[in-house]
């Protein structure tokens, strides 16, 4: 069956092309409208300032006026005290320091106080003449320390008693006794270090039982000497 209309007379044949052209035209116009720029007219003007006229103006010169300082206040008048002739005035007598031939000259003796030298403890190892037991009196110097140590050990073994309370509690250890041999040969305990009080007391008792020793000497003078000695308490 053949169509009745002429194909050339169909309006929708090129509608897609016309739509694309129209869309391109609209976009172009819109873009031109967005990019359109306008500028305001600027009026040219000239302004001149005559600097010479401003510089020709006279500037008044100010002068500094020196004002004189105010005058000083008037001084108060001195009060003059009138003293009657009858009033007695004490006179100061100045004695002369010159001596006459008849005057005796008394010599004043100057008393000079001599301070006693303070004895300083010297360690046993550096003292010149070491303290000694009476049994070591005739021992040479190079054997003095060995003799002192042997007699001290003998004294400790002879005097030693293990405290009963320490034995019952099983307490044992080493007690360090630091004592001083004074200038007269007596003993002074300085400090002790012990693991228990009973051991400390026994160590002090042993050292206090030492006999009077021959004191140490430094440059020929009796000097206090310090000595540290350990006493061992050990249970069998």
Give an overview in words.
By secondary structure, the chain is an alpha+beta fold. It has a domain at 122-233. Helices cover 25% and strands 14% of the residues. Strand 4 and strand 5 form a beta hairpin.
Brief sketch in words of this structure:
Helices cover about 25% and strands about 15% of the residues.
The class by helix and strand makeup works out as alpha+beta
Q: H/E element string?
A: HHEHHEEHEEE
Give the helix proportion (percent range): 25-40%
DSSP summary: helix tally: 5
User: Distance between termini?
Assistant: 143 Å
Sequence-ordered SSE layout with sheet pairings:
Blueprint lengths: L14 H21 L15 H5 L66 E2 L20 H16 L4 H6 L3 E9 L5 E7 L3 H12 L7 E3 L2 E3 L1 E9 L3
Parallel strand pairs: 1-6
Antiparallel strand pairs: 2-3, 2-6, 4-5
Task: Spell out the key features of this protein.
236 residues; alpha+beta; two-stranded antiparallel ribbon; 6 strands; 14% strand
């Amino acid at each position: 069956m053949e169509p009745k209309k002429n194909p050339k007379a169909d309006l929708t044949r090129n509608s897609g092309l016309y739509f694309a052209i129209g869309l391109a035209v609209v976009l172009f116009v819109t873009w031109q409208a967005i990019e359109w720029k306008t500028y305001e007219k600027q009026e040219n003007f000239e302004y001149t300032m005559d600097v010479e006229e401003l510089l020709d103006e006279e500037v008044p010169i100010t002068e500094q006026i020196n004002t004189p300082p105010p005058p000083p206040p008037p001084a108060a008048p001195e009060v003059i005290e009138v003293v009657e002739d009858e009033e007695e005035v004490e006179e100061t007598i100045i004695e002369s320091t010159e001596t006459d031939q008849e005057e005796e000259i008394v010599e004043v003796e100057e008393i000079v106080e001599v301070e006693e030298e303070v004895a300083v403890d010297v360690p046993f190892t550096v003292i010149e003449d070491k303290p000694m037991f009476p049994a070591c009196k005739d021992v040479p110097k190079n054997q003095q320390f060995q003799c002192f140590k042997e007699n001290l050990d003998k004294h400790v073994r002879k005097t030693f008693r293990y405290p009963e309370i320490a034995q019952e509690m099983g307490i044992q250890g080493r007690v360090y006794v630091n004592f001083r041999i004074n200038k007269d040969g007596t003993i002074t305990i300085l400090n002790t270090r012990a693991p228990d009080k009973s051991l400390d007391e026994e160590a002090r008792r042993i050292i206090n039982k030492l006999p009077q020793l021959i004191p140490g000497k430094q440059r020929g003078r009796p000097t206090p000497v310090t000595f540290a000695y350990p006493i061992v308490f050990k249970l069998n």
